[in-house]
Amino acid sequence: MRAAQSMMLRALRSGQRQFSVAVTRPWEDKWLTLPPVSASSSASVELNQLSSTPTTALKWVVRCCPHLPRALVHKLFRLRQVRIHPATVIQQQTFKRVAAKDTLNTGDRILLPQSVKVKQTPTHSHLTPQQINFIRTLVIYKDPAILVLNKPPGMPVQGGINIKRSLDAVAAASLNYGYSQPPRLVHRLDRDCSGILVMGRTHTSTTVLHSIFREKTSRASDDIGKEKRILQRRYWALVLGCPRRPKGLVTASLGKVVVDNGRSDRITIVDNSTLMSSQHAITEYRVIASSSQGYTWLELTPLTGRKHQLRVHCAEVLGTPIVGDYKYGWQAHRKWGHFDLPNVEDSREELLNEEKLPFGLNLNKGSISENHPRLHLHCKQMVLPNISQALQNVQSASSCDLSLVEELELVADLPPYMQRSWDVTNY
Predict the structure, then answer these.
(1) Which stretches make up the Pseudouridine synthase RsuA/RluA-like domain (predicted)?
(2) Full domain range(s) for residue 160
(3) Does one domain contain both 300 and 158?
């Protein structure tokens, strides 16, 4: 909580400086070279006191390239496409990969792929009125600091290979509502997951929200057993079978393994949590309802925010894979006997082509009454501090305790196909 408050104060009081990009190096045909890190870049004023904070690679890229979409910057780091030319190295073409959180020294230079010059021109700006209206119908809450959407299943949150339309790009083109900057992602949902997605509307509110979500994961162990938490997320999931206990706590570390000869990867339970690659993951669960057909509705509360955490915990720890999760529950679906699953990928393409909603979405088909059920995982409820109120308090006071700020309780309706499954299992 202190980290969130500290970042909020720094973001509010520190001025944003913009730099021009210089491309004057011998390697300019391949790399875009940013200005060298300056000694003054790590100084910030917080509560009228001068404090030195390290400049990370991510911070420097954002400062030097405010025109680049934030999602693209994070993607470059994820794909390890960012390089550094340390000031202490004399050789001109001695580069090494740099991570987003790596600390920079004075004189270091960051290099980005030249392709960002092309990518910075948005290809998503040409939206039809129908598409814009559809995206705006997804907004369930809006204030000066945040924007909240009920994300539709089947729409990726971020761009990537073979992704033509991502929610962050479309939101940037249609959900500014008069603001000079587009809304920014502060957390993510899987492509086939639906429900509450929060975006920051300003640089300051985005920074605060990032710190809240990050601190939620780093301090997850402290939240076990607490009734009131600064951030609460509750998902609804329909699973195959039923857990042995009606409620409980799953604490199982996760790790990534490469499969298909390096063509893909998946998350799995890591027994040895001391491994450097493992990430601790904690999930609370409780049974909402069970049906005579053998299905169970679960409420899942992740105390950490790991990739595929809920899906893996349900499938590998509880032994109840989520309906429609063929990545982690393929064998269970085959044994279930109620579904015909010859080729799930083909059925997904048929599903997208049959519906005439914008962006090729289909929100109706995919319930358990059909042969090819879709992923039944929905972020139904989220409780978080009223960031807009918190920022107003900071402007008029020297400190702000986020635990004392009024809470925002957000609720998102189930997509039609999940609602139909709910009706079938609870008639």
Answers:
(1) 146-315
(2) 129-216
(3) no
Residue 22 in any domain: the answer is no
Q: Does 383 have pLDDT greater than 50?
A: yes
Q: What is the pLDDT of residues 273-329, one digit of tens each?
A: 555 567 889 999 999 999 988 999 999 999 999 999 999 999 999 999 999 999 999
Residues recognised as catalytic: 190
pTM for the model stands at 0.73
Which CATH number do you get for residue 173? 3.30.2350.10
Instruction: Please check whether residue 8 lies inside any domain of the structure.
Output: no
87 neighbors 106 (Cβ within 8 angstroms): yes
pLDDT tens digits for range 85-105 = 888 776 666 788 999 889 998
388 in the same domain as 239: yes
